[in-house]
Amino acid sequence: MAKKTSEEAHSTHNDTNTTVGKMKKELGSTGFVGMVVGLVIIVIATAVFFFNYTKSNKNTEAQAEMFQAQFYFEQDSLDLALNGDGRNLGFLSIIDIYGGTDASNLSNFYAGVIYLKEQQFQLALDHLQKFSTSEELIQARAYELTGDAFMELGNFSNAAKEYQKAATTADGDAFSPVYLLKSSLAYEKQGDLKAAVKPLDEIIKNYFGTAEYASARKHKARLEGLAGS
Questions:
Q1: How many CB atoms lie within 10 A of CB 5?
Q2: DSSP label at 210?
Q3: Would you list the DSSP string of 55-111?
Q4: CA distance 90 to 33
Q5: 114-123: long-range contacts, CB 8 A cutoff, minimum separation 24
């Protein structure tokens, strides 16, 4: 009986080899490879479709869960927003449970803001650095807050760089001059007066007529006086 089974398996193997051989012969080497590649593409495309479908559903669920946390944040109930109320999830749980979703990404921003308000600056930094968005004004704000966290931690060099990134990302009269002034202040605190003048020069050159223009000229004169003394 075992012998027969072995023979049947051998026969099936031969049939398979024969079928593959026939396909190779009929399609040619290039055509056969093309068929295999096509099948692989179909499998991958199917997998990507189901991954995106699952991710979309997960994100929709996460956004619904985040609604109450956002409400608590707007009411300045920061602990409830961060940790939940026992029935509704807080931002930290949304980050853990729904990692990789837009809701988790946004929850990192909210958590960073809350920790900054609570003067837990390293935790604020940890969350803000995990956040990213294509919305330029929001991203610029995130860079500014990251700079604020670095300032509080005494890392003035990184703070200045974050403020500079905020100014470049915002790229407009309403916000960029503010971020550039903060960048100048961070460099000054670091003790690099030459670097502190550069953001001020940028304001003077590019943002004439803004409220920060006069401040930039005044601070530039002060810094140049300190550098010469």
A1: 9
A2: S
A3: HHHHHHHHHHHHHHHHHHHHTT-HHHHHH--SSS--HHHHHHHTTTSHHHHHHHHHH
A4: 52
A5: 114/73, 114/78, 114/81, 114/82, 116/145, 116/148, 116/149, 117/78, 118/78, 119/152, 121/149, 121/152, 121/153, 122/149, 122/153
Backbone angles phi, psi at 28, to 5 degrees: 85, 165
Is 94 buried (19+), middle (13-18) or exposed (0-12) by CB count in 10 A?
buried
Tracing tokens 């990507």 back to the chain, one arrives at 48
Q: Are 82 and 90 in contact (CB under 8 A)?
A: yes
Element (H, E) at 11: helix 2-74
Mean pLDDT of the chain: 84
Q: Which helix (H) or strand (E) holds 146?
A: helix 136-152
Question: CA 185 to CA 177: how far, in whole Å?
Answer: 12
Q: What residues contact 211, with CB distance under 8 A and at least 6 apart? A: 177
How far apart (Å, rounded) are the C-alpha atoms in residues 174 and 183? 16
The model scores a pTM over 0.85: no
Our CA angle for 82, 86, 92, nearest 5°, is: 25
Rounded Cα gap, residues 10 and 15, in angstroms:
9
Q: Please give the distance of CA 194 from its chain centroid, rounded to a whole number.
A: 32
Residue 37 burial (CB < 10 Å; 0-12/13-18/19+)?
Answer: exposed
| Secondary structure element (H or E) that encloses residue 184, with its range | helix 176-190
Residue that wins the pLDDT comparison between 10 and 73:
73
